[in-house]
Amino acid sequence: MEVCLSIEVRSTEIDVMGHVNNAKYLEYLEWGREEWYNQVKLPFDEFKAMGVGTVTVSIHIQYRKEAKQGDRLTIQTKPLRCGKSSFVFFQEIKNEKGEVVADAEVISVTIDLENRKSKPLPELLRRYFD
């Protein structure tokens, strides 16, 4: 299931070059993943009840085009693949013209909240990746 989140670039997200600071894109991607979890009815409380957490372990991001203050961006998030305890999202950030501003593959792992070790993906999550 692909989920989209629309945002507007704020002045506090701009760096000295006059465009969105590279670190902000990571934040945008996180907002997109949080929206995905909420849309599929798997908010953090649901994971917590199962004794499971999710941890981002790798983000491979490509910056394609600059974004500036006032731009409206759409963050698209979709499940790509999964392993035993890991899962991968593909995310794209597009501007109003539909141009890709950045894209990324984000790898996360499910962990046991008590012992902080990796744990197999819960079926409630796995079904979106199979």
From TrEMBL:
Its EC number is 3.1.2.-. It comes from the Bacteria. Keywords: Hydrolase. InterPro entries: 4-hydroxybenzoyl-CoA_TE, HotDog_dom_sf, YbgC/YbaW. GO terms for molecular function: fatty acyl-CoA hydrolase activity. The keyword Magnesium does not apply. It is an enzyme of class 3 (hydrolase). PANTHER family: 4-HYDROXYBENZOYL-COA THIOESTERASE FAMILY MEMBER, NOVEL THIOESTERASE SUPERFAMILY DOMAIN AND SAPOSIN A-TYPE DOMAIN CONTAINING PROTEIN (0610012H03RIK). Belongs to the 4-hydroxybenzoyl-CoA thioesterase family. This is YbgC/FadM family acyl-CoA thioesterase. It comes from Shimazuella alba. The lineage of its organism: Bacteria, Bacillati, Bacillota, Bacilli, Bacillales.
